[in-house]
Amino acid sequence: MDFYTLTAIKFALGILMMIFQINVLGKRDFSLNTPLNQVQNYVLGGIIGGVIYNSSITLLQFFIIVLIWSLVVIATKILIDYSKTFKRLTACQPELIIRDGLVDIARCAKVGLTAQSLSRSLRDQGISSIRDVETAVMETNGSLTIRLHGDKSRRSLLPLVSDGQFVSDGLVLAGKDAAWVKAQLKEQGYSSVKQVFLAELVDGNLEVVPFATSAKAAKRGAPQPTDPKTLDAATDR
């Protein structure tokens, strides 16, 4: 097999493996600038760039190398989804940087947000002074979600439960604790927080989107979003 044909096949295998990872991990995960995505892109770029032009490495060897790396990435993603500690170490999370009108300097430093950057982000949203801000959350894509003083909507900036785990900042903003959430979930027929895909506080009530149909919901005949497309539609609302 000549050099150019071998290179073209290796390149095609690399592209197919990237598509495989995107389909397995989800398109949204790849759109976020997380530590895992950065490392994944660096390593995969090094593997493809360093191996694709090396004719001494066979197609089988190249395929096995890329497959091993893909399995490592997928295993890491599974650990992130099921281990709260591992998720905190490797994945980006929304950061509560302003609470009750007070800027959390430590968290700003953690996410690399300078005073100038914060002021510019506020101006971009038409906010002239930080004194007008009651609460601000930095999202994983770097944007700010803001609630102003006197905002009558009192919308929830962060969920109380996400992917079967409590969101500590969400609980703080809502003025609730894990015990209250568990009691509310029990009243709605859920035995564990791990059954909950998403839970938000809306007008003082806990609105729950479950992973699967609970026994109580089934008795009521309420439809539950178990299909991924339905879940996406529910979270969009």
SSE inventory with pairings:
Blueprint: H1 3-25, H2 27-31, H3 35-51, H4 59-82, H5 84-90, E1 95-99, E2 102-103, H6 105-110, H7 115-124, E3 133-138, E4 144-148, E5 161-162, E6 165-166, H8 168-174, H9 178-187, E7 196-202, E8 205-210, H10 215-220, H11 228-236
Antiparallel strand pairs: 1-2, 1-3, 3-4, 5-6, 5-7, 7-8
Helix pairs in contact: 1-4, 3-4, 4-5
Can you describe this structure?
- There is one protein chain.
- The protein has 237 residues and is of the alpha+beta class.
- Helices cover 52% and strands 15% of the residues.
- The chain contains 11 helices and 8 strands.
- α1 (3-25) packs parallel to α4 and α3 runs antiparallel to α4 (59-82).
- It is flat and about 70 Å long.
- The chain starts with a helix and ends with a helix.
- Mean pLDDT is 78; it is low at 214-237.
Short recap of the structure:
With 237 residues, the chain is α+β, with helices and mostly antiparallel strands.
Briefly note the structural class of the backbone.
alpha+beta
Number of E-state strands = 8
Q: Beta fraction of the residues?
A: 5-15%
The whole-angstrom Rg is 22 Å
Order of strands, widest sheet:
2-1-3-4
Can you count the helices?
Answer: 11
Q: Shape from CA axes?
A: flat
Biggest β-sheet strands, sense, barrel:
4 strands, antiparallel
CA-to-CA gap between the ends? 55 Å
Helix-residue proportion: 40-55%
Question: Could you report the average pLDDT, rounded to the nearest whole number?
Answer: 78
Q: What is the string of SSEs from the N terminus onward?
A: HHHHHEEHHEEEEHHEEHH
Runs with pLDDT <50, length 5+?
A: 214-237
